[in-house]
Amino acid sequence: MDINLIQTQVENDLNTVSSASELESVRVKYLGRKGVLAELTGLIGTLPAEERGLFGKQVNSLKNKLLEFFQEKEKTLKTQGGTVDKNRQDIGLPGIAQELGSSHPIIQVIDEICGIFNRMGFSIVEGPEIETEYNNFTGLNIPLDHPSRDAFDTFYLKNYPKLLLRSHTSPVQVRAMKAYKPPLAIVVPGRVYRPDAVDASHLFMFHQIEGVLVDENISFADLKGILGLFIKSVFGEDIKMRFRPHFFPFTEPSAEVDISCIICKGKGCSVCGRKGWLEILGSGMVHPNVFKQVGYKPGKYTGFAFGMGVERIAMLKYGINDIRLFFENDLRFLKQF
Ligand code: PHE
Asked: Which residues sit with their C-beta closer than 6 Å to ligand 1?
């Protein structure tokens, strides 16, 4: 029996095959229990000892060839959908769905908040994440011995002692006031960095939104009015707001702003630590020393500034209890927004 002939025969047979069932009958004919290959294998034992080796090898390589042919044919049948016409495509097959992406929940909250201020007339401005020590501290009236300047609280750049990763968005106040004369109204979204140990409410990187408004005759009442509008836009008409006296070197007077707890509506729960209030931002009237640093006439202009943490607001808004969820890139989390 001519082994090469068998190989050509199989090829010819396979060429006429156009369905899975036809393929199966060709397979049985050659590779089946009583097929051609089994017959050849049976012959090996009947041959004289010196011919067995060579013949056995030939049978074996034929077997491998056939297996390859059949595999190949099966593949082409599959891609053709097993139809008779090789060029026909099955237009009924479902297509490959393209997943639609969406913006990150933090970006969504930034867009919402900046949108609210933008509609009140604030421009949206950005600043660099690598800042000078001057803009991050000195220009903001933060004294040389202030603890926030410590390397435990600020990331300094290793080979550039006067540069750091900004620890808040307030340095953009200094940049903007140096670049523009009043009237000035800006909001500044962006990333900030602090060497905090990571836990459910701390990361070494988070986002803030800064706001500054400077003009003639700006008072604390303007700050209160603007922030009141903002808070109602984000959290709803029923939310209450209170100002708590506080200290920031770059504002005087300064206040922290709380909203009534959105979980318990002010009754006291675990989220607000039974206080009924949630701290959401820092604010105050721009300190005259800051005006001096940027070259504004302190007697002529007054203004207010505020700064808030975006993750904290997003967590309150969506009821998220772990800040790390935002940055783990888990689509099961991110797809919910
Ligand atoms: N920069 C302050 C902080 O990060 C927030 C703030 C901004 C306070 C502007 C007052 C005015 O805590």
From this structure: 168, 170, 210, 248, 251, 282-284, 305-307
